[in-house]
Amino acid sequence: FMSSIIHSTKAPPAIGPYSQAVKCEASRTIYVSGCLGLGPTSSTNEKGEPVFAMVQGGVATQARQALENMKAVVESSGSTLQNVVKCTVLLTSMADFAEVNGVYAEYFPTNPPARTTFAVAGLPAGGLVEIDAICIF
């Protein structure tokens, strides 16, 4: 079982005891942890890496940032968003479904991946949307 941990400094670090993504060589699969709308700030940490904070502007802005973060992690693994085969979308309100769909469609314009969407009671860091993915390479 050969796997490697994927880390991109262009996306926020994991905010718990997990990895941004895990790349499994045997199955040629990448499992991307849930991505929130955390965007880089003008601050850096002690390693010189950007500090991230929740973007302002509502669910569409958070969804776009979450997908940019996912893109950064997927590309760090050597794959692309075109190779995403499954996503899970978590929303704090199903009323945001259509607005998030509009942003999501920008990132997966043709042959979109399979997807499940759930409404949840809350998300880390006060997020309104979180998206994870399974990708091939």
Structure description:
Helix content is about 20%, strand content about 35%. The protein has helices at about 60-75, 95-105, and strands at about 5, 20-25, 30-35, 40-45, 50-55, 85-90, 115-120, 130-135. The strands form 2 sheets. A 6-stranded mixed sheet has the order 1-2-3-8-6-7, with helices on one face. A two-stranded antiparallel sheet has the order 4-5. Helix 1 runs parallel beside helix 2 (about 95-105). The two termini are about 15 Å apart.
Short précis:
With about 140 residues, this protein is an alpha+beta fold. The chain contains two helices and eight strands; from the N terminus they run βββββαβαββ.
Order of helices and strands: EEEEEHEHEE
Strand count, sense and closure of the main sheet?
6 strands, mixed
Cα distance spanning the termini: 16 Å
Compute the CA-based radius of gyration: 14 Å
Strand content: 35-45%
Coarse shape: globular
Blueprint of the fold:
Blueprint: E1 3-6, E2 21-24, E3 29-35, E4 38-44, E5 50-54, H1 59-76, E6 84-91, H2 97-107, E7 114-119, E8 129-136
Parallel strand pairs: 6-7
Antiparallel strand pairs: 1-2, 2-3, 3-8, 4-5, 6-8
Helix pairs in contact: 1-2
Name the descriptors.
single chain; 137 residues; alpha+beta; two-stranded antiparallel sheet; 2 helices; globular
